[in-house]
Amino acid sequence: MRIDILTVVPELLESPLGCSIVGRARKKGLVEIQVHNLREYGTGPRKNVDDYSYGGDAGMVMTIEPVYRMLEALKARRSYDEVIYLSPDGERLTQAISNELSLKENIILLCGHYKGIDQRIRDHLVTREISVGDYVVSGGEIPAALLADSIVRLIPGALTDETSALSDSFQDGLLSPPVYTRPAEFNGWKVPDVLLSGNPKRIRDWQEEQALSRTKKLRPELLGEEKTE
Description:
Layout: E1 2-7, H1 20-28, E2 32-37, E3 50-52, E4 60-62, H2 64-75, E5 82-92, H3 95-101, E6 106-111, H4 119-124, E7 128-131, H5 141-152, E8 185-186, E9 189-190, H6 200-218
Parallel strand pairs: 1-2, 1-6, 5-6, 5-7
Antiparallel strand pairs: 3-4, 8-9
């Protein structure tokens, strides 16, 4: 899989994409991630990538030319399944979306900055818009890193134990059950006896029960229910 990320602040992506699971997956050759500086395609002697907005609103807007030129250059080398713009008004990121995108071959992530991007980019160059939540951050770099991480960890071989991802929260529409490790007792706080029983069926039944009860309590909307106080 290949992920190309277009940004005006490439430095923000160096650490999250170079460490832990994503970093190891890149070293293994499971995924290729290339971060591109949009200023390379900026206009004028100062390589400008933004300008004042029509209408007089406050804040600068990313211009269409650098984005268009970089997309054309990338598309000349390979075809892409998606050109995704990280936007607060895009579709809300879910585990199902990450699962879907992990099966793609090549995708582009476009990071907005400043006040946003020229609407014509969204209308004519972007194929999909994704939001990581109902809030605004300074740019799309952190959301892009988050999306990339959620995708890469699903690629076979990225996790040491591939079955680990199958028990993640949201993978089956529920929150994960609580997890414990050694010691079995600390400060008088004990691990549930069932987890020490060595009985796989009892443990599995307990985990399923816990996942359902936690979801009902904490995220009932996942079950089509309303939260009660």
